[in-house]
Write a structure and sequence with these properties.
It is built from 10 helices and 7 strands. It has 205 residues and is α/β, with parallel strands linked by helices. The protein has 2 domains: 125 residues, Rossmann fold (3-Layer(aba) Sandwich); 70 residues.
Length: 205
């Protein structure tokens, strides 16, 4: 069986789901933004300095969602996903390639830094497809808030992949928009970079 790697943001569609979610959460949690403004500002500064670190991002998320009820949290998540699906720029050609690989008998592995909880709601057809595995960041509800449990980016994508699959796994094809996915692209016999309009160019190792 062939295994195929797909990224999500910038690959299946143009926008960044997680960035959009944080912006949406800010608009819905203005009271928390006001109360914790200095600490949130510091967290944003730290995040701008270390965008690949989990702690600064969790500082933002924790303060935004502190004190939220389960009902309100689910409402915001569902509202965001509905809004995102109405406004995102899907790359039809890339999604068609994903479907073609499945029809050819391949197994698709989606690996993303976006939380799986959001991916599953925006792409429910992929989340429920037995031929597709999704390896992604995860969130948790704890300490009266909502924040990242595990962040699936850069080299940690490879770590999470190996926690899911055998370390001898090789992808026959791979698709991503970012060189930050190099650890995964290096595992692909054929890899492609996705441009901002969905165009494909070969990835040169």
């Amino acid at each position: 069986m062939n295994y195929i790697f797909f990224d999500v943001d910038g690959t299946l569609h143009r926008e960044d789901i997680f960035v959009a979610f944080i912006k949406f959460a800010i608009s819905k949690r203005r009271f928390n933004c006001l109360i914790f403004l200095p600490m949130i500002a510091v967290s944003f500064i730290l995040y701008s300095l270390k965008p690949k670190a989990k702690s600064p991002l969790n500082g933002i998320l924790f303060l935004l969602f502190l004190g939220i009820s389960e009902y309100r949290l689910n409402f915001i998540i569902n509202e965001f996903c509905g809004h995102f699906k109405k406004n995102y720029t899907i790359f039809k050609n890339i999604n068609e390639k994903l479907q073609k690989h499945i029809l050819d008998g391949s197994r698709v592995v989606i690996i993303s830094g976006t939380p799986v909880e959001l991916i599953a709601k925006i792409y429910p057809n992929y989340a429920n497809d037995s031929n597709i595995d999704i390896i992604a960041s995860t969130m948790k509800k704890q300490y009266f808030s909502y924040f990242l449990k595990e962040r699936c980016i850069d080299n940690h994508k490879k770590t999470m992949l190996y926690n899911y699959y055998d370390k001898n796994l090789v992808f026959s094809h791979g698709y991503s928009d970012s060189l930050s996915d190099k650890p995964i692209l290096e595992l692909c016999r054929e890899a492609y970079m996705v441009g901002k309009f969905g165009e494909l160019t070969p990835y040169c190792k």
